Amino acid sequence: MLPEMIVEALQSTLAPTVESHFADYLRGHDTTRWLIFSDYVLKQPDRPNDVYSFTIIPGGKFLESLTAEFDATAVKDFKKGPQVGEEMLHLLSDKRLYTFCFIVDPSRTITRNVLTLRQMMDATIEMMGRWQDVERNQDLIRAFKAMRRKADSRGFNVRLMDDIIVATTLAAFLTYLICKLIPVERIGWFSDRDSITIAHQYIANHFYAANVSAFCQRYLKGWRGPELGINGPVEAGGTLWSDAFLRVPDHFACAISAWNIEQNSLSSAAPKYLQVMMDAVADRDNVHILRVKFDWKDEKLSVASSRVALSLATEDEKAGAS
């Protein structure tokens, strides 16, 4: 199944290099509560990458002071203004934050067609029926069965469902990874409000919960996982309590979406892109970029991942080398 394939690929990439450092970061905060904030740049014109960005912060006794700092500093989305202020750049590189950015090819093909998607959903529902805590998850299973019925309709948006599956799998993987490394009581995943999160009566929340439970039961000796928190529905025109926090993964996702890895260049000339890449990403051991590739061969889908090191040269460095 696709979520398990993504997890296996990411574990093989992170275990030898990043996992130990991430564990040190987690153990450096005396709390059993954590928060994950995410934002995405997908299918944007003239952007070489789709990016799923996740920023992790400690909760519990740390949350009040962090909330005050984010509310005072993260006041604008990345797209507003030609530059990023010094205070925001400092927040982006703050050691209390840990960020994972996953790059995928905008032209990727995952489920290919609705028939493949239906088969994946059937397999997921069958797996859920074998859960040890199946009785506790009847509402979740009913939501998946309702989603499966919708997949029988004409015009079902397969690409949107691909985006939902990838986003929720990555969020669940990071949730599982935190639980693997330290004792955890509660983790909240708070995503920006967009088509991924609101489609089909917030089905993404159900995908996330199902994946967390499945990953923890499979890899953590049958444990069903921590208590979970998510953003609730917001009325049109309303704001999320987490808006300030979401502006951090927003800055990372927007900047990295413009990075042409093969040419080692930025597709945008706006100064703010280079600011974030050089001041908040380059040489930061609490920011990691991973490339996830999906490949179909002989009617089988494979998933591979790899870390990507940033070596973006500034204009002055390029001039000096010429």
Brief write-up:
With 322 residues, the protein is α/β, with parallel strands linked by helices. It contains 11 helices and 9 strands. The strands form 2 sheets. It has a 7-stranded mixed β-sheet with strand order 5-4-1-2-3-8-9.
Molecular structure report:
- This protein has 11 helices and 9 strands.
- Strand 8 and strand 9 form a beta hairpin.
- Helix 5 runs antiparallel to helix 6.
- The termini are far apart.
List keywords for this structure.
single chain, 322 residues, alpha/beta, 7-stranded mixed beta sheet, two-stranded antiparallel ribbon, globular
Count every beta strand, where a strand is a DSSP E run of 2 or more residues.
Answer: 9
Question: Which structural class should the secondary elements be placed in?
Answer: alpha/beta
Rg over CA atoms? 19 Å
Q: Strand fraction band?
A: 15-25%
Structural domain tally: 1
Number of helices: 11
Shape: globular
Any low-confidence stretches, pLDDT <50, length ≥5? 314-322
Sheet with most strands = 7 strands, mixed
Order of helices and strands: HHEEHHEHHHEHEHEEHEEH
Taking the alpha carbons of the first and last residues, their distance comes to: 49 Å
Q: What number is the mean pLDDT? A: 89
Strand order of the largest sheet: 5-4-1-2-3-8-9
Helix proportion: 40-55%
